[in-house]
Every structure is written in C-alpha cells, then in structure tokens.
Prior knowledge:
Elements: E1 19-24, H1 28-38, E2 43-48, E3 61-64, H2 67-72, E4 77-80, H3 84-96, E5 100-103, H4 112-125, E6 129-130, H5 139-146, E7 151-159, H6 165-170, E8 182-187, H7 189-195, H8 201-210, E9 215-221, E10 228-236, E11 239-247, H9 258-272
Parallel strand pairs: 1-2, 1-4, 2-3, 4-5, 5-6, 7-9
Antiparallel strand pairs: 7-10, 8-9, 10-11
Helix pairs in contact: 1-9, 3-4, 5-8, 7-8
The structure holds nicotinamide-adenine-dinucleotide (NAD).
Nicotinamide-adenine-dinucleotide is lined by residues 24-30, 48-50, 81-84, 86, 104-106, 134-135, 198, 201-202, 205, 256-257, 260.
Amino acid sequence: MTQERSTAAGADPGEEAGRHVGVIGYGAAGRACAALLLADPRYRLTVLMRSPMAGQLPDRLSAVTSLDALIAARPQIVVEAASAEAFATLAPACLLAGIDVVAASVGALQSRETWDAVVAACSEGRSRLVLPSGAVGGLDYIAAAALSGDIAVTYTSRKPPAAWTAELAAAGLAEAARSQAVTLFEGSAPEAARLYPRNLNAGLTVALAAGIDRTLVRVVADPAVTTNTHEIAVTGAAGDAFLRFANRPSPDNPKTSMITALSLASAVRKRFDPMQ
Ligand SMILES: NC(=O)c1ccc[n+]([C@@H]2O[C@H](COP(=O)([O-])OP(=O)(O)OC[C@H]3O[C@@H](n4cnc5c(N)ncnc54)[C@H](O)[C@@H]3O)[C@@H](O)[C@H]2O)c1
C-alpha cells in the first residue's frame, strides 16, 4: 500500500475527489475497460492515445497523446492495455512517478531489461506493478501452493487452428491441425512470451505466480476447441488442481477475450477498495 493510499480509517483519500485512472491504449481491452469503469460515476479517466481521436469522447474521459501529459494529469493508477513494446517504454516512467500500473501486457516482463527497469522504478517511485489475472484465474491458489516449495504447473494455451494460421503454415503443420491437436511450442513461459508476445501473457502470469522454473508452457492448435481455452494443471505437496478457462470473445471485438477487460477493470476497482 502506498503512503498516499493508507489512512487510519482504511478509506482512500482520493475518494472525495473521485477516482482518477489513466489508461494507455484505447483498443479492444482499453476501450472496454474504460467503459466498465465509466459506468461507475466515481471514475474519471485520462487515456493516452497514439493520436487524437476523431468524434466525441465519453463523458469523464479526456485524451492525451504524450506520456508526459498522462503523468502530469496525476492519475491515481494507470492501466496499460496497449502492447508489450508500449509497456516496456511507458510503464517504468509511470512507476517512477509514483503511479501504480495494472499491466495487460504481462508478457513484456520476459525481457530481463524490462523486468529490471520495472523493479528499479517501483523501488524509486514507491509504486507497484499489478499483474491482473487477465485471461485466466486461480493465481491466488497457485501462489499459495507454491509456498510449499513443491509444485509443478503446466499451462496449456489451446486455440482453434485459425488462430495460428501463419505459425502452422511456417511449421508445415496446417494440414495435420485440421484433424488433430498440434503442439506448436513446449518450454518456458519467458520463451513463450518472447515468441508470441500478443498471445502468451497468461503463461507468464501463471509462471510468475508458480515460479518460472516450476512452470511448463504448451501452445496447442486444437481443432476440437472453438474458443480460446487456457488450462492450468497443478500438482504439489498441498494437492492437485486443474483449471480450465474457455473464454468468450468480446462482443465488440472478436479478437480479444471479454474477460481481459473485465479483469483489468476489476484490478483497478480492487486497488480503490479498502477491503482487500
Ligand atoms: N494479460 C492477459 O491475459 C491478456 C489477454 C489479452 C490481451 N492481453 C494484452 O493486452 C494488450 C492489449 O490488447 P488489445 O486486444 O486491447 O489490443 P488492441 O490492438 O485492440 O489495442 C491496443 C491499442 O493500444 C494502442 N497503442 C499501442 N501502443 C501504444 C502507445 N505507445 N501509446 C498509446 N497507445 C498505444 C494501439 O494503437 C491500440 O489502439 C496486448 O498487449 C495484449 O497482448 C493480455
């Protein structure tokens, strides 16, 4: 908890002035997250966009086009919903300025350089990077079970072959994937996130909860699934678990899962909630 946020009563001192949230990226997840937050009249948003948007912006939402302007607006928390590259270039500056960041592009942390920059910025800015559950869940269980020291996790991303058209063609597996599940990758979460920066955020999120060395990531093109599916198998001293998430696409954008924006908005709301 940052100093600004903690009060004897546990309430957020920013509450009376409203909840001011910054958003980096106004694409599928950023826009849906913004709409979810704005449905609550206590929220106002400052959104960092690449260029000014044509047309009317929603009430209580203002747009800026530079990182300096976003930081100068002093949001209490920033949601990154842009890309791994944007996360790496923009998130450390927000953290250094003392602003917590909720990151959608968790996969960016596979880069040692980005990881180190984030850790240093959090330390100097007395801020925190929040890793939302994103497309999956059960991270609380995994993190707790990992404390036993005895845990092994397999995270499997299972998507229809149409989601991997280019990769299957490059591997000469397009024909095989029409009738059977084809494993495109098996290895570590950082390597998966490096190879598939837009698709393997969840693998790294799981691995950061379980431990990188204790997590095996598999990427499967599976003609038997119709939606983006995530499976997490946990075995360990505390017990075994199997979690499966079959995500529905966002009603506004079939390319992104509905749950991602819900998860970002939920993480923001939690940060304002005195009851954790
Ligand atoms: N954590 C998870 O489980 C999870 C799940 C799904 C998506 N994601 C990640 O969330 C991010 C957003 O996904 P999306 O589906 O909304 O993508 P999207 O392409 O629909 O939207 C991204 C938006 O960010 C903007 N943008 C990119 N760089 C920017 C910059 N430097 N400054 C300002 N705006 C910038 C783009 O112009 C675009 O409008 C991606 O990195 C994606 O991989 C994470």
